[in-house]
Each structure stands twice: as C-alpha cells, then as structure tokens.
C-alpha cells in the first residue's frame, strides 16, 4: 500500500498529506473486508461451493482437467528440462 500511496501522490502532483486523507475511506473498506474474511470464512467460500454444486446438478463431474494437447506440451517441456520432471 505504501508504494501506491507515494506513486499516487507523485502522479497527482499533490502533497502526501492530501493523498493520505483521500485514501482513508479505501483503507477502512479494506480493513472491514479483512475482518469479515477472518471472522466469517464462509463468506469467501460460498462462490466455490455454489459453483461446485452447480456443476454436480448439471452432470459435470469433478475438477476441470487439462486438454490432451496441453498435457503433451507440458510433458515435452518437462522432458527437455535435463530429464528431471516435476509434473
């Protein structure tokens, strides 16, 4: 946040104090969001859970997998890496 603060003041050609006052509402919102995520983790997990239930209701199963072309690309890339493969 500090780098953005100084960069914004430089670009706007305004004193740091004026930019700092303008940033206070944004920083307060950020603190509130962090508080909500920390104390109510279900708020951050509702979208993945909702998406997962949607996929199962519509006949889609499991996580998405890479296409065979993509898999072949990564296997060749790993094989060319001095014989050591992490994939």
Jot down its keywords.
87 residues; mainly alpha; 4 helices
Could you write a compact summary of the structure shown?
With 87 residues, the protein is mainly alpha-helical.
Distance between the termini: 36 Å
Helix content range: over 70%
SSE ordering: HHHH
Q: What structural class do helix, strand and pairing data support?
A: mainly alpha
Mean pLDDT: 75
Backbone shape = flat
Structural overview:
- The protein has 87 residues and is mainly α.
- The chain has a domain at 2-60.
- It has four helices and no strands.
- The protein has helices spanning 2-12, 16-39, 42-57, 68-79.
- Helix 1 packs antiparallel against helix 2 (16-39).
- The longest helix is centred in the first third of the chain and has 24 residues, at 16-39.
- It is flat and about 55 Å long.
Lay out the secondary structure.
Blueprint: H1 2-12, H2 16-39, H3 42-57, H4 68-79
Helix pairs in contact: 1-2
């Amino acid at each position: 946040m500090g780098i953005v603060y100084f960069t914004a003041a430089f670009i706007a050609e305004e004193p740091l104090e004026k930019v700092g006052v303008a940033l206070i509402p944004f920083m307060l919102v950020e603190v509130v969001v962090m508080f909500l995520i920390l104390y109510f983790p279900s708020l951050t997990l509702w979208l993945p859970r909702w998406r997962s239930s949607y996929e199962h209701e519509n006949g889609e199963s499991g996580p998405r997998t890479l296409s065979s072309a993509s898999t072949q690309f990564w296997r060749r890339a790993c094989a060319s890496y001095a014989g050591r493969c992490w994939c």
